[in-house]
Amino acid sequence: xxxxxxxxxxxxxxxxxxxxxxxxxxxxxxxxxxxxxxxxxxxxxxxxxxxxxxxxxxxxxxxxxxxxxxxxxxxxxxxxxxxxxxxxxxxxxxxxxxxxxxxxxxxxxxxxxxxxxxxxxxxxxxxxxxxxxxxxxxxxxxxxxxxxxxxxxxxxxxxxxxxxxxxxxxxxxxxxxxxxxxxxxxxxxxxxxxxxxxxxxxxxxxxxxxxxxxxxxxxxxxxx
Length: 224
Known about the structure:
The protein is α/β, with parallel strands linked by helices and about 220 residues long. The protein has helices at about 5-25, 35-45, 50-60, 80-85, 95-105, 110, 145-155, 170-185, 195-205; strands spanning about 70, 90-95, 115-120, 130-135, 160-165, 210-215, 215-224. Helix 1 (about 5-25) packs across helix 5 (about 95-105).
């Protein structure tokens, strides 16, 4: 179980980090700021997993059975926008106000049409009054110390599929990223395949899950 004081402290640190980092982070996906040649080099050779997990989310949600989607840790709305363009109805939730402002700008038309709404909150703190066909949690578990609490809540609120990414432990780039985030007082957690199998096993999901190795991340699909 989560230590409440520690959870509150870490959540606040993550929210502060991403509120200030919103524009820089969002520019990786081609929004808000012009990318330098160095940034483009990094995107091409060291951020391959970001592109792959994006493609996998769109692949697995491209079915008529998936109509309503919860994007947990929706950030600047990159996935929300793509899913809305694909005809889905989306709810995005994030703790960083700066990120949500970007998401609202990207999807203003869909907000007017009632196809998307955004919630400024941590996921565990917000009670949902509806269930969703699928949930997307990409770039979310990087900052979560105890995923089981999130899994248990998802099991109640999602009926068909979970699409999730987990940063892979090991490697120089992983170490370098952890140092950068520590300097900015933002927690960061990594996972091995064994870690994921243990977590999925605790939920009884191991036989329902697909673990895909995508460069610096694991992409996990759970069919509920």
